[in-house]
Design a protein that fits this description.
The chain is of the alpha/beta class. The chain has a single domain, classed as NAD(P)-binding Rossmann-like Domain (Rossmann fold, 3-Layer(aba) Sandwich), CATH 3.40.50. The chain has 6 helices and 7 strands, in the order βαβαβαβαβαβαβ. It has helices at 14-25, 41-48, 63-76, 103-129, 155-176, 206-219; strands at residues 5-9, 29-34, 53-57, 82-85, 135-139, 181-186, 229-232. A 7-stranded parallel beta sheet has the order 3-2-1-4-5-6-7, sandwiched between helices. Bound molecules: NADP nicotinamide-adenine-dinucleotide phosphate. NADP nicotinamide-adenine-dinucleotide phosphate (NAP) binds next to helix 1 and helix 4.
Protein backbone atom coordinates (compact mmCIF):
# COMPACT_ATOMS: atom_id res chain seq x y z
CA UNK A 1 0.00 0.00 0.00
CA UNK A 2 1.35 3.42 -0.94
CA UNK A 3 1.45 6.39 1.40
CA UNK A 4 -2.04 7.62 2.37
CA UNK A 5 -2.61 11.36 2.78
CA UNK A 6 -5.12 13.03 5.08
CA UNK A 7 -6.02 16.65 5.78
CA UNK A 8 -7.77 17.64 9.01
CA UNK A 9 -9.14 21.12 9.80
CA UNK A 10 -9.37 22.69 13.26
CA UNK A 11 -6.35 20.94 14.76
CA UNK A 12 -5.38 23.50 17.44
CA UNK A 13 -6.86 21.27 20.15
CA UNK A 14 -9.88 19.07 20.86
CA UNK A 15 -11.14 16.42 18.47
CA UNK A 16 -9.11 17.80 15.52
CA UNK A 17 -5.77 17.48 17.33
CA UNK A 18 -6.70 13.96 18.47
CA UNK A 19 -7.68 13.02 14.89
CA UNK A 20 -4.29 14.23 13.63
CA UNK A 21 -2.54 12.10 16.30
CA UNK A 22 -4.72 9.07 15.49
CA UNK A 23 -4.06 9.34 11.76
CA UNK A 24 -0.29 9.53 12.32
CA UNK A 25 -0.55 6.36 14.45
CA UNK A 26 -2.32 4.69 11.54
CA UNK A 27 0.50 5.58 9.14
CA UNK A 28 -1.05 8.53 7.33
CA UNK A 29 0.81 11.59 6.13
CA UNK A 30 -1.17 14.32 7.88
CA UNK A 31 -1.76 17.89 6.78
CA UNK A 32 -2.99 19.68 9.89
CA UNK A 33 -4.86 22.91 9.22
CA UNK A 34 -4.77 25.23 12.19
CA UNK A 35 -6.47 28.53 12.94
CA UNK A 36 -4.41 29.97 15.75
CA UNK A 37 -0.58 29.91 15.52
CA UNK A 38 -0.25 30.68 19.24
CA UNK A 39 -1.69 27.22 19.99
CA UNK A 40 1.45 25.08 19.78
CA UNK A 41 0.34 21.50 20.47
CA UNK A 42 0.12 20.83 16.75
CA UNK A 43 3.66 22.22 16.24
CA UNK A 44 4.97 19.80 18.87
CA UNK A 45 3.24 16.92 17.10
CA UNK A 46 4.77 18.02 13.78
CA UNK A 47 8.23 18.36 15.34
CA UNK A 48 7.96 14.73 16.47
CA UNK A 49 6.70 13.56 13.05
CA UNK A 50 8.58 15.80 10.62
CA UNK A 51 8.60 13.26 7.77
CA UNK A 52 4.86 12.68 7.85
CA UNK A 53 3.31 15.95 8.81
CA UNK A 54 2.74 19.45 7.50
CA UNK A 55 1.01 22.31 9.33
CA UNK A 56 -0.85 24.95 7.34
CA UNK A 57 -2.77 27.97 8.55
CA UNK A 58 -6.45 28.06 7.70
CA UNK A 59 -9.51 30.11 8.55
CA UNK A 60 -12.35 28.20 6.92
CA UNK A 61 -14.54 31.30 7.23
CA UNK A 62 -12.42 33.17 4.67
CA UNK A 63 -12.29 32.63 0.89
CA UNK A 64 -8.75 34.06 0.76
CA UNK A 65 -7.45 31.86 3.56
CA UNK A 66 -8.91 28.71 1.97
CA UNK A 67 -7.40 29.63 -1.42
CA UNK A 68 -3.97 30.25 0.16
CA UNK A 69 -4.19 26.93 2.02
CA UNK A 70 -5.04 25.08 -1.19
CA UNK A 71 -2.05 26.57 -2.97
CA UNK A 72 0.33 25.48 -0.21
CA UNK A 73 -1.17 22.02 0.22
CA UNK A 74 -1.04 21.30 -3.52
CA UNK A 75 2.74 21.81 -3.35
CA UNK A 76 3.12 19.36 -0.47
CA UNK A 77 0.88 16.37 -1.21
CA UNK A 78 0.08 14.60 -4.50
CA UNK A 79 -3.53 13.90 -3.47
CA UNK A 80 -5.77 13.62 -0.41
CA UNK A 81 -7.26 10.22 0.42
CA UNK A 82 -9.14 11.45 3.47
CA UNK A 83 -10.37 14.99 4.12
CA UNK A 84 -11.76 15.55 7.62
CA UNK A 85 -13.68 18.81 7.97
CA UNK A 86 -13.58 19.11 11.76
CA UNK A 87 -13.30 22.86 12.43
CA UNK A 88 -16.37 24.42 13.96
CA UNK A 89 -17.70 26.97 16.44
CA UNK A 90 -20.61 26.92 18.85
CA UNK A 91 -22.13 30.37 19.22
CA UNK A 92 -24.86 31.29 21.68
CA UNK A 93 -26.60 28.42 23.50
CA UNK A 94 -28.87 30.37 25.82
CA UNK A 95 -31.32 32.43 23.77
CA UNK A 96 -34.76 31.13 22.81
CA UNK A 97 -37.71 32.51 20.87
CA UNK A 98 -38.63 36.02 22.01
CA UNK A 99 -35.13 36.82 23.32
CA UNK A 100 -32.94 39.40 21.61
CA UNK A 101 -31.37 37.12 19.01
CA UNK A 102 -27.97 38.04 17.54
CA UNK A 103 -28.36 37.37 13.83
CA UNK A 104 -24.87 38.61 12.97
CA UNK A 105 -23.45 35.99 15.31
CA UNK A 106 -25.63 33.32 13.71
CA UNK A 107 -24.31 34.33 10.28
CA UNK A 108 -20.75 33.94 11.58
CA UNK A 109 -21.54 30.46 12.91
CA UNK A 110 -23.19 29.44 9.65
CA UNK A 111 -20.29 30.93 7.66
CA UNK A 112 -17.85 28.69 9.55
CA UNK A 113 -19.77 25.48 10.21
CA UNK A 114 -21.74 25.17 6.98
CA UNK A 115 -20.14 27.38 4.31
CA UNK A 116 -16.63 26.87 5.69
CA UNK A 117 -16.90 23.12 5.33
CA UNK A 118 -18.07 23.47 1.73
CA UNK A 119 -15.36 26.07 1.02
CA UNK A 120 -12.69 23.57 2.03
CA UNK A 121 -14.22 20.58 0.22
CA UNK A 122 -14.68 22.65 -2.92
CA UNK A 123 -11.13 23.99 -2.88
CA UNK A 124 -9.65 20.54 -2.29
CA UNK A 125 -12.05 18.58 -4.53
CA UNK A 126 -9.46 17.93 -7.26
CA UNK A 127 -6.91 16.63 -4.73
CA UNK A 128 -9.56 14.42 -3.10
CA UNK A 129 -10.73 13.02 -6.44
CA UNK A 130 -7.09 12.33 -7.38
CA UNK A 131 -6.74 10.16 -4.26
CA UNK A 132 -7.43 6.45 -3.94
CA UNK A 133 -10.11 6.57 -1.25
CA UNK A 134 -11.84 9.87 -2.15
CA UNK A 135 -13.38 10.15 1.31
CA UNK A 136 -14.67 13.35 2.88
CA UNK A 137 -15.68 13.21 6.55
CA UNK A 138 -17.69 16.14 7.87
CA UNK A 139 -17.73 16.41 11.64
CA UNK A 140 -21.26 17.60 12.12
CA UNK A 141 -23.38 16.90 15.21
CA UNK A 142 -26.55 15.28 16.44
CA UNK A 143 -27.59 18.93 16.79
CA UNK A 144 -27.91 19.06 12.98
CA UNK A 145 -30.63 16.40 12.92
CA UNK A 146 -34.00 17.94 12.12
CA UNK A 147 -35.78 14.63 12.74
CA UNK A 148 -34.37 14.44 16.27
CA UNK A 149 -34.50 18.14 17.25
CA UNK A 150 -35.25 18.67 20.97
CA UNK A 151 -33.52 22.00 21.71
CA UNK A 152 -35.33 25.35 21.83
CA UNK A 153 -32.22 27.46 21.27
CA UNK A 154 -28.67 27.06 19.89
CA UNK A 155 -30.14 28.55 16.70
CA UNK A 156 -26.88 29.30 14.90
CA UNK A 157 -25.25 25.98 15.79
CA UNK A 158 -28.19 23.70 15.02
CA UNK A 159 -29.07 25.52 11.79
CA UNK A 160 -25.44 25.52 10.68
CA UNK A 161 -25.05 21.79 11.34
CA UNK A 162 -28.32 21.01 9.51
CA UNK A 163 -26.96 23.04 6.56
CA UNK A 164 -23.67 21.19 6.90
CA UNK A 165 -25.61 17.93 6.61
CA UNK A 166 -27.34 19.14 3.44
CA UNK A 167 -24.10 20.27 1.80
CA UNK A 168 -22.68 16.86 2.75
CA UNK A 169 -25.48 15.17 0.79
CA UNK A 170 -24.88 17.46 -2.20
CA UNK A 171 -21.11 16.90 -2.19
CA UNK A 172 -21.74 13.15 -1.79
CA UNK A 173 -23.82 13.21 -5.00
CA UNK A 174 -20.81 14.79 -6.75
CA UNK A 175 -18.02 12.55 -5.52
CA UNK A 176 -20.06 9.31 -5.59
CA UNK A 177 -20.02 9.46 -9.40
CA UNK A 178 -16.23 9.18 -9.17
CA UNK A 179 -16.20 6.34 -6.64
CA UNK A 180 -15.92 8.65 -3.61
CA UNK A 181 -18.12 9.26 -0.59
CA UNK A 182 -18.98 11.73 2.14
CA UNK A 183 -19.57 10.64 5.73
CA UNK A 184 -21.27 12.80 8.36
CA UNK A 185 -20.00 12.12 11.87
CA UNK A 186 -21.28 13.08 15.30
CA UNK A 187 -18.21 12.90 17.56
CA UNK A 188 -20.21 12.30 20.76
CA UNK A 189 -20.24 14.66 23.74
CA UNK A 190 -16.55 15.47 24.04
CA UNK A 191 -14.65 17.31 26.77
CA UNK A 192 -13.22 20.20 24.75
CA UNK A 193 -13.05 23.98 25.09
CA UNK A 194 -15.78 24.62 22.55
CA UNK A 195 -17.93 26.30 25.20
CA UNK A 196 -15.06 28.65 26.10
CA UNK A 197 -14.08 26.48 29.09
CA UNK A 198 -13.41 22.76 29.50
CA UNK A 199 -16.78 21.03 29.20
CA UNK A 200 -16.70 18.82 32.29
CA UNK A 201 -20.23 17.53 31.60
CA UNK A 202 -18.93 15.59 28.59
CA UNK A 203 -18.43 11.82 28.78
CA UNK A 204 -15.68 11.41 26.18
CA UNK A 205 -12.09 12.57 25.88
CA UNK A 206 -10.98 13.90 22.47
CA UNK A 207 -8.83 10.77 22.10
CA UNK A 208 -11.77 8.43 22.76
CA UNK A 209 -13.90 10.33 20.26
CA UNK A 210 -11.16 10.44 17.60
CA UNK A 211 -10.35 6.74 18.03
CA UNK A 212 -14.04 5.92 17.54
CA UNK A 213 -14.34 8.20 14.50
CA UNK A 214 -11.29 6.65 12.82
CA UNK A 215 -12.58 3.15 13.56
CA UNK A 216 -15.91 4.04 11.93
CA UNK A 217 -14.29 5.76 8.94
CA UNK A 218 -11.37 3.42 8.28
CA UNK A 219 -12.38 0.01 9.66
CA UNK A 220 -16.13 -0.18 9.05
CA UNK A 221 -17.71 -1.22 5.75
CA UNK A 222 -20.65 0.94 4.75
CA UNK A 223 -22.53 -0.17 1.66
CA UNK A 224 -22.44 2.29 -1.24
CA UNK A 225 -25.44 4.46 -0.55
CA UNK A 226 -27.29 7.33 -2.17
CA UNK A 227 -26.91 9.27 1.11
CA UNK A 228 -23.82 9.88 3.20
CA UNK A 229 -23.57 7.68 6.29
CA UNK A 230 -24.81 9.93 9.16
CA UNK A 231 -23.44 8.16 12.23
CA UNK A 232 -21.91 8.79 15.63
CA UNK A 233 -18.37 7.90 16.75
CA UNK A 234 -19.60 4.34 17.50
CA UNK A 235 -21.09 3.90 14.05
CA UNK A 236 -24.73 4.11 15.23
CA UNK A 237 -27.01 5.68 12.61
CA UNK A 238 -28.56 9.10 13.30
CA UNK A 239 -31.87 10.28 11.83
CA UNK A 240 -31.52 13.12 9.32
N1 LIG B 1 -17.34 18.74 21.78
C1 LIG B 1 -18.52 18.19 21.52
O1 LIG B 1 -19.20 17.67 22.42
C2 LIG B 1 -19.06 18.17 20.12
C3 LIG B 1 -20.33 17.62 19.90
C4 LIG B 1 -20.83 17.59 18.60
C5 LIG B 1 -20.07 18.08 17.55
N2 LIG B 1 -18.84 18.63 17.79
C6 LIG B 1 -18.08 19.12 16.64
O2 LIG B 1 -16.78 18.60 16.67
C7 LIG B 1 -15.88 19.49 15.98
C8 LIG B 1 -14.65 19.73 16.84
O3 LIG B 1 -15.04 20.45 17.99
P1 LIG B 1 -14.31 20.32 19.42
O4 LIG B 1 -15.31 19.85 20.38
O5 LIG B 1 -13.01 19.59 19.27
O6 LIG B 1 -14.08 21.87 19.78
P2 LIG B 1 -12.77 22.77 19.76
O7 LIG B 1 -11.77 22.20 20.69
O8 LIG B 1 -13.25 24.15 19.97
O9 LIG B 1 -12.24 22.56 18.27
C9 LIG B 1 -12.71 23.27 17.17
C10 LIG B 1 -11.51 23.64 16.33
O10 LIG B 1 -11.95 24.39 15.18
C11 LIG B 1 -11.13 25.55 15.10
N3 LIG B 1 -11.82 26.63 14.40
C12 LIG B 1 -12.81 27.44 14.86
N4 LIG B 1 -13.14 28.33 13.91
C13 LIG B 1 -12.36 28.08 12.83
C14 LIG B 1 -12.20 28.67 11.55
N5 LIG B 1 -12.93 29.74 11.19
N6 LIG B 1 -11.29 28.16 10.71
C15 LIG B 1 -10.52 27.11 11.07
N7 LIG B 1 -10.59 26.52 12.27
C16 LIG B 1 -11.51 26.99 13.14
C17 LIG B 1 -10.83 25.90 16.54
O11 LIG B 1 -9.72 26.78 16.65
P3 LIG B 1 -9.53 27.69 17.98
O12 LIG B 1 -10.28 27.04 19.10
O13 LIG B 1 -8.06 27.76 18.17
O14 LIG B 1 -10.13 29.04 17.68
C18 LIG B 1 -10.53 24.52 17.09
O15 LIG B 1 -9.23 24.11 16.78
C19 LIG B 1 -16.70 20.75 15.67
O16 LIG B 1 -17.14 20.74 14.33
C20 LIG B 1 -17.89 20.62 16.60
O17 LIG B 1 -19.04 21.30 16.14
C21 LIG B 1 -18.32 18.69 19.04
Amino acid sequence: MGQKYALVTGTDHGVGLALAEGLLERGYYVVAARLNPTETQIDELRDNNKERMFVVELDIGSDQSVAAMKEKVAQIVPHIDLLINNAGILGDMSKVLGDELDFDEMLRVINVNALGTLRVSNALADLVLAGEDKTIVNISSEAGSIADCWREGWFGYCMSKAANNMQSALVHNNVRKHGGKVMVLHPGHVATYMRGHLDTTANLTPKESATGILRVVLDTEFEDSERPAYVNYRGDKLPW
